[in-house]
Amino acid sequence: MQNTTDFSSGSVKRHIIAQALPLTLAQAVQLLYNIVDRIYIGHLPVVGQTALTGLGITFPVIVLIAAFTQLVGVGGTPLFSMARGRRDEAEASAILGNAAALLMIASVGCFLVGYLFRRPILFAFGASEESYFYADQYLRVYLWGTAFSMLTTGLNGYINAQGFPKVGMATTLIGAVINIILDPILIFAMDMGVTGAALATVISQIIACVWVLVFLLGKKAIIPLRPDAVRLNLQRCKRMITLGIPGFVMQGTNSLVNIVCNNQLRLFGEAAMLGGGDLYIGVMTVLGSVRELLSLPVGGLANGSQPVIGFNYGAKEYARVKEGIRFAAILGAVYTLLAWAVVMLIPHQMIALFTDDAQSIQVGAKMLNIYFFGFVFMAFQFAGQSTFQGLGKAKQAVFFSLFRKAMIVVPLTLLLPRLGFGVEGVFLAEPISNAIGGLACFVTMWLTVYNKLDAPVKT
Questions:
Q1: How far apart are CA 427 and CA 322, in angstroms?
Q2: Per-residue pLDDT tens for 389-438?
């Protein structure tokens, strides 16, 4: 779908806010998918803390499934859009069918590997005997929804690419709302616990997938999904996977960070206190949830700025590009400073949203203050990356994402606990990486892009 808004006239700030608000809303709805599970499971009587830890152990598996969705599904969307732009509907239809075939094959592979080898995988990802019981309860049900999850996410982009953003938004809303409704019914009313949370997620994924397929197979789709087009073509597969690699690498890196953190928390948490491994992994699960919630507005702002600065760059309105970059960076910094202040003021209340366990709340509040120290630097990371992406410099955007996660967080997570910081070193790796990675990304963008906007930027 072509953007009919002329971002080269009117207020740059207003354009960015207008783009950021719906994006933030969409991300918030998507985030609720996972956050609600964590909140309900964390408040299970007696076993809530251990069950929450078990759910945290499954996150790397879920993220890896999302990574493969990016690799084989999302990579085809720009090829589909370009084919439509050339009025080559036959090629667009073939790309859509190829994407569906790849997603189905990849989902079968992910399911079989995850289901058959879930015990060694979960222990490799940081499980103990106690937390494995709950991790296995969740994962062995969740994995049955792999095909539905991958098809929903991987094919929904083709709905948006045909000019139906409301239908694409409804896909996310339907899944999230059904999951939110079913969670308390299955977890508490039907006394299914962790299994109920997983089942609620699978049911919501199935219904969302049916919604996507009904639309793409129906008459309203401009380029429908034709069953005879659902087959593999080597050249199309290669092009789609090539474009999907950046998303796969970024998601895969997230999984790697989570795995390393879990194992370090298991090792040094047990050294800190009996049963501390499970306790600290559960705390990290909560902190990750809080970070995702608080990062939503600044992430939405960064994403909302991309089409505005990109449009103005294409129109050679470089002063407006600079204004957009400055506005996104300053507003993001102000917001993250306020969010940081809130975390410092009410850490116990924020942890209590996810658990009733007194020890978890006490330890979690302390670690929250460490983990969120210097949260403002996240604004600079988002501002730098969104500028690179908005101007078509995807390689730089991917590099600085990997730089912060793989080159800073992972080594620090392995090193700091051994330098005398103990289990607190795992939590300390995040703020240090935010400062180094965020500043490196923003300063590089400022020197190589912002200061050279009087002339065309090389891509």
A1: 35
A2: 788 787 888 898 889 998 999 999 999 999 999 999 999 999 999 999 99
Q: What is the dihedral of CA 158, 162, 163, 167, to 10 degrees?
A: -50
Tell me the one-letter amino acid at 154: G
Nearest alpha-carbon partner for 351 in 363, 361, 342, 366: 361
459 exposure class (CB count in 10 Å sphere: 0-12, 13-18, 19+): exposed
pLDDT band at residue 444 using 50, 70 and 90 as cut-offs: very high
Residue among 442, 394, 153, 120 at smallest CA distance from 250: 394
Token look-up 């139906």 returns 164
* CB distance 232 to 102 below 8 Å: yes
Say how far apart CA 146 and CA 202 lie, in whole Å: 8
Half-sphere exposure of 33 (CA within 13 A, CB side): 20
Stated length of the chain = 459
Q: Does pTM top 0.90 for this prediction?
A: no
Does residue 20 contact residue 305 with C-beta atoms inside 8 Å?
A: yes
Which amino acid would we find at residue 134? Y
The alpha carbon dihedral of 313, 316, 319, 320 has a sign of negative
Domain residue limits, the chain = 1-29+273-459, 43-251
Residue from 442, 409, 448, 443 nearest 425 by CA: 409
Q: Per the structure block, which two tokens stand in for 333?
A: 């910094």
Helices 276-314, 424-448: crossing angle, 10 deg rounding? 10
First and final C-alpha spacing in the chain: 23
Q: Which of 265, 268, 257, 282 is nearest to 126 (CA)?
A: 265
Amino acid (1-letter code) at residue 147: A
What does the DSSP assignment read for 249-291? HHHHHHHHHHHHHHHHHHHHHHHHSTTHHHHHHHHHHHHHHHH
State the residue for tokens 């309900």: 40
Q: What is the dihedral of CA 313, 318, 319, 322, to 10 degrees?
A: 70
Decide: 307 and 20 in contact? Cβ < 8 Å: no
